[in-house]
Amino acid sequence: MKLFDVYPINDINIVKGLGSYVWDDKGIEYLDMYGGHAVISIGHTHPHWVKKIEDQLEKIAFYSNSIKIPLQQELADKLGKVSGKNNYQLFLCNSGAEANENALKLASFHNGRKKIIAFTKSFHGRTSLAVSATDNPSIVAPVNETENVAFLPFNDEDALKKYFEKNGNEICAVIVEGIQGVGGIRVASKTFLQLVRNVCNQYGAVFIADEVQCGYGRTGTFYSQDQADVEADIYSMAKGMGNGFPIGAISISPAIAAKHFMLGTTFGGNHLACAAAIAVLEVMEKENILKNADETGNYLLNEIAKIPSLENVRGKGLMIGFDVPSELQELRANLLKRHKIFTGYAKPNVIRLLPSLALDKKDADKFLNALREEVNFLLSEKQNIPASVNA
């Protein structure tokens, strides 16, 4: 049987990881500045995380949600404490797409409405309604098409106000990323997110904060939306939640009531997934991960901005993007090929950085030195002059 060919892949077989590094089957070491799509939150194979999963595996790995699973409540208590949302409710699932699917479904159950507002360049997942709210027609199958989702310009406050003035009583929910990841590290402004909160309050719509990529400490606050001093009705999360173990969730305002069978999952909240997620939160607390993400992220942002050939450096914490001009189009490929550094990409010309939130300054400097060297090398090649140390 052949694998279904849907992923363009690098011909590299990673067999081991530790902290911010991974190794291939030939023993070659790579600095991981992408974290497997922002999944690695506390570092590859963190020893506490490994031990927690091993200990749980020796007890029981899975049983269904038809029985009491105390680990779920332990995770809910820990997440409430670390996120500052103690009075919220937790529904556990398996992925970011599933989290957003349930968030949108729950919003519609709550107010009985159908209309969803999403934004240009948004990405919310590949399942039925989540992909319908994703601004990428190439991944929306005909069966996913719906008139219930309206796409408004991201960060356009006037457009949002006008749409609510015209359609406010029909709007079920607004779903928005605090920082768009796949969309190219586009940061939602503080006033824009505050407006989302205000119009949702005014018209009875549900504010869904998609924190799948930009949440869980990545920006230096637990949720990216925290930086706008707003509180969403539902937070969706997944990527950094299990540090590589599949788990997702939605954190739900106490104003939204639960009812038996309105949501459900077979594997969500299983024993192993909860153990992995609890370990992540314990490491976050013990090692002050959020502070590190903020400080190391600011350092990277400031240093990258000093490289004049790179454009529009932006982001928060360890969610960083910058535009690559045409003369440096080989930059990302060369960082991998020549310097053994993984980075991410967004169309049309963005390099994305989403490393472990435990990335230290030494490894940040290793990346910066390689970045400067490669920019300088590519520019000198174009101009056919010897490379210097300043890009």
Automatic annotation (TrEMBL):
Superkingdom field: Bacteria
Cofactors demanded by this protein: pyridoxal 5'-phosphate
Keywords: Aminotransferase, Pyridoxal phosphate, Transferase
One example GO MF annotation: transaminase activity
Record's keyword annotation contains Transferase: yes
SUPFAM superfamilies: PLP-dependent transferases
InterPro entries named in the record: Aminotrans_3, Aminotrans_3_PPA_site, Class-III_PLP-dep_AT, PyrdxlP-dep_Trfase, PyrdxlP-dep_Trfase_major, PyrdxlP-dep_Trfase_small
Family: Belongs to the class-III pyridoxal-phosphate-dependent aminotransferase family.
Protein name: Aspartate aminotransferase family protein
